[in-house]
Amino acid sequence: MSKETILVSGGAGYIGSHTVRMLAEEAGYQVVVIDNLVFGHRDALVSEGVVLVEADISDANAVEEIFSTHNISGVVHFAAFCFVGESVTDPLKYYANNTAAPLTLLRAMREHGCDQFILSSTCATYGDPQEMPMTERHAQQPINPYGRSKLMLEQILSDCDQAYGLRSVRLRYFNASGCSRDGLIGEDHDPETHLIPNVLRAAKGEIGPLTVFGSDYPTPDGTCIRDYVHVEDLARAHVNALNYLSEGGTSFSCNLGTGQGASVRQVIDAAESITGKQVPIEYGERREGDPPELVADSSLAKQALGWEPQITDIRHIIETAWAWMNGPGGGKYRE
Ligand code: UDP
Asked: Which numbered atom of ligand 1 lies nearest the CA of 284?
């Protein structure tokens, strides 16, 4: 088993914490997490030996201290803001945190001779879909500052490869969802905007009726279709991407999705059957910026990283989210 040390930024967040756990417990890496705990949770770091540095990635001194204390062989970068609506009303916050702050990590990598970077990127870098399923060849014309903030970082990474030989894999997630299969860690956002946790909380009566954003889309049941991909499958893609780079792989970007779409209505129906409860809903206006359908073609991830999702059934994904929500913490971390 490898004993290399990986730095994970935003490792106490949702996808970050599942990746940290897989790196530490399954792939045998030493893991150092840098997280300012604004959205992350200390309790989401459940694996023995993981070092948490509570700091912001823009804090050059803290980052330098990490690189001079630990022999970091690769960086997996999650730390970012991800609320599309907020990115429209406060774009500078997004460009500062999602585009500018990671430069501190890249500078330290360059200084310390670390040349492997995995980026948590997003299908929001594509913008309005022109073809379905979407491949990596799809034009990248994001329609909001969130997507642009991530696309710019992808471009910065290409430039860093050209100039410094700093190699990267940019993973463009579709809809991250579900919780660890053993129910130990999961999704705890505040505010929670995502469909699946809100459907389940509405089923439990913890929140009022779920608003379905639009029922007149050109889809079979009129509601939006998304490609929900399980968070542990996403986590495994990062482990595979690190292996790929450490074996000398060259930089590239790839999609991560199951290739299967589920509509909002199908998610609600599946949740009702899993929970045995009715999900109270009301139909509302379309949410701005929501395309009718987003489904990934992930064949490049399969070909280059040997990655295939293990969970492809939306029911199974919802079951893991439901188990976490009914665990000891009720789907919430203490801190
Ligand atoms: N959605 C909804 N009601 C909600 C939250 C989401 O109808 O309370 C819809 C949303 O319009 C989208 C899908 O569910 O079509 C997934 O949204 P989510 O916010 O989970 O992820 P996104 O696709 O925005 O990344």
From this structure: 7
